[in-house]
Amino acid sequence: MIEFKLPSLGADMDEGTLLEWCVQPGDVLKRGQVVAIVDTTKAAIDVECWDEGTVEEFLVAPGTKVPVNAVLALLRAPGETPEEAARWKAQRRAAPEAAPAFAPGEPAPSVAPVGAAAVAPVAERRRVSPAARKLAERRGVALDALVGSGPEGAIVVEDVERAAKGVAPPVVPVPGAVVPAAERAAQMRSTIAAAMARSKREIPHYYLATDIPLALASRWLEQRNAERPVTERLLMAALYVKAVARALLRFPEFNGFVREGRFEPSAQVHVGVAVSLRQGGLIAPAILNTDRLVIDQLMRELGDLVKRARAFTLRSSELSAPTVTLTNLGEQGVDAVFGIIYPPQVALVGFGSVRERPWAENGELQLMPVVTATLAADHRASDGHRGSLFLAEVRSLLQRPESL
Amino acid sequence: MDEPTLRNTIARILSGIAPEVSLEEIDPAVPLRDQVDLDSMDWLNFLVGLHEQLHVDIPEGDYRKLRTLNDLFGYLRAKLGM
Description:
The structure holds 2 protein chains of 2 kinds. Chain A is built from 9 helices and 20 strands. Chain A has helices at 82-94, 130-139, 157-164, 181-202, 215-226, 236-250, 295-310, 316-320, 384-397; strands at residues 2-5, 15-21, 28-29, 33-39, 44-49, 53-58, 65-67, 71-76, 205-213, 256-259, 262-265, 271-273, 275-276, 282-283, 286-287, 313-315, 324-328, 347-351, 355-361, 364-378. The longest helix of chain A has 22 residues, at 181-202. Chain B has 4 helices and no strands. In chain B, helix 1 runs antiparallel to helix 3. The N and C termini of chain B lie close together (7 Å).
């Protein structure tokens, strides 16, 4: 039996509200299939399941708030028979003191799990059988008002039918009811605050800056974009992202995580892109396998990612995956950004605005478009010398835009 | 295409990108990007919207001619032969 748990959605999101299930018991899952939609302070996340199996049982009903790592559902592993599954469940129910089902080293949720369900919503526990929930929706019965007569107080179909007899016009319950904008903004603010405060507390930051001449990159972009319709044009930001991704292949100490005081480099490069949200707030989802994308594909994914981030809908893998973050504040006209690393990452690469400056090269003075690139890095994982070389590599790659 | 249709199309595309703003609130003689928070990604998406809805392609070299709403309307009217 596979326990499908709510994955980590980034350092600053430690719980979410299940909005709806996207599959049914009996469905055979493919790797990466979106299985549920979970609401967080920043977005409604499409939660993907990376195991293959058959959906056996839901353990959490829509509308329930759950911590990261809570078991949301049980999946029958490929080849597991229904008898084996039943035996697994029976064993779990017989051992109510079972250890919490998280990997060691993961942060424990705020509420301890209980028995076979191993799910403890932060609010009161409301176990509702899927059939009962569907019936309640159809008949307009409010689940909160019911007392469950099923196992462990679960609400079952009979409970709903009894309540339905006394109910007038149907009211459509909205699981994870719409949060008013002001409240969402306040929640988002405190989520960001917690993550940034933690970062400054725990991570010994050092900061480096370098000026990067962009004449070659600008000219290359101009020529390329002139030959293409607006739907295929590139932004300078795409070049920044690709250059950083490529540079990380040579400087792995800026691509990975510090966990329990130890640096773990990541084998993949997933650059998280800081996206400002129109109503205020910030989210930094990843472009997966950034180093492997050709620049046109990267640009398409960047555009799509920004659009979905601003529409508050992203995939769980985009939030849990980033191995580094890039922030581009060029549009607002600041020269440079010295950011705060997003834990447990170890680096944040920043870009300011592109501005025309007098520039000396080979004894000659010219007017040059220049951007100031910065690196905020975790001194537990790297030193300034390597940080300088990393930025120099980014600078060098941006002088050869055609190779990006 | 008539003027109201053009206006509505622009309004719709803009509100898809900046839902907090309505066309009526924008001073047509003042640079658009001084009044609405639009980064280069937003601007590109706006142009993609124009391309899809009006079948007008705007070369990069013309971007700087389109600072205000008046500039934009004038440019599009010319391109659409209105």
